[in-house]
Design brief:
- The chain contains 10 helices and 5 strands; from the N terminus they run H-H-E-H-E-H-E-H-H-H-H-H-E-E-H.
- Helix 5 (102-108) crosses helix 6.
- The protein has a 5-stranded mixed β-sheet with strand order 2-1-3-4-5.
- Strand 1, helix 3 (49-52) and strand 2 (60-65) form a beta-alpha-beta unit.
- It has 205 residues and is α/β, with parallel strands linked by helices.
- The longest helix is centred in the C-terminal third of the chain and has 22 residues, at 139-160.
Length: 205
Amino acid sequence: MKLLKALFDNNRRWAGRISQENPDFFEQLAKQQNPEYLWIGCSDSRVPSNQIIDLMPGEVFVHRNIANMVIHTDLNCLSVLQYAVDVLKVKHIMVVGHYGCGGVRAAMRQQRLGLIDNWLGHLRDIHRLYQDELQALDEPARFDRLCELNVIEQVANVASSTILQEAWDRGQEIAVHGWIYGIDNGLLTDLDVTIDRNRDLRATP
């Protein structure tokens, strides 16, 4: 029996359904990739980017990692960002976190987890930066707020990258947004931290 046969069966049903709805879809998709959006999200399997915003393949460029972080030494993320901005010319970058994020929860706990501690150290820095605000909240609210604060900090990291700075300097129109997703209701919330030019970033505390 073929390994993971059910997934191949699912794939064929999906491709057949798409082809029935739009016979030219895959032929057109193969010719070009021209998305207007870059989604930087969490690797969590419960947060499927295309489905959440109801877009088809080819309409959103995607990068995912644990806790949707943008770290200035992460060449994987920066390469995706550079390609999206300089080659694909996306118009919008959405940093999308989610409530109930396992990476954020792990960062809140003072315990050793292994290799991932090196990654979670960046989240623990955010926790320390906002310690006074967070300590005033009960634990569930603190967890939710750290999920939001992480998104806000990653928006700033995207906007302060040389990739975005140079794009704005040459007049490219591109905006960076911070959103958070509720797994329990399927809804996105705009955290109102959009940055679309250099001076917006300089005005951010």
